[in-house]
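From the pipeline queue, job 12 of 40. The input is one protein chain; the requested action is below.

Action: predict structure.
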Amino acid sequence: MSLNRSELRSWLMLMTGVQSLLDALDRQLRDDAGISHDDYRILGSLYRSPNRVKRMRDLAREMSYSPSRLTHAATRLESHGWVSRSKSNSDGRGVEVHLTDLGVAKAREASEGHLELVRQLVFDTQDPDQLDAAVVALARIGEAAETSRA
């Protein structure tokens, strides 16, 4: 099966747009807060979690990381004092990642410029109807991609 001309054009524009957005966000976070976009996503996920803690397996799934990749990222974040890891309190088998007070401060510091750029690049470039349609489309794409993994 192949893509027709219109589908190929749409696919390439989607990939270019997404990659350009991610590159701009990563550049801004590195320049302004000294943190990568991937590390910011981990800190943000922990920040929004109850008690600012998640099991490694759940965080890896959410981030679409292999366990090994998340272990390397957690080690890097731990070296900065932004997270800590411990055995799970609930069953003693799993490992939990905890956002430290330094991690909370780093997430907050990084959020200011990051959210400003998100507003500028995403929300200020679209009218509400365009944005609603894009959200629906991307949600469907994400669901289809998740289903294809199973």
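Job complete. The first strand starts at residue 53 and ends at 55.
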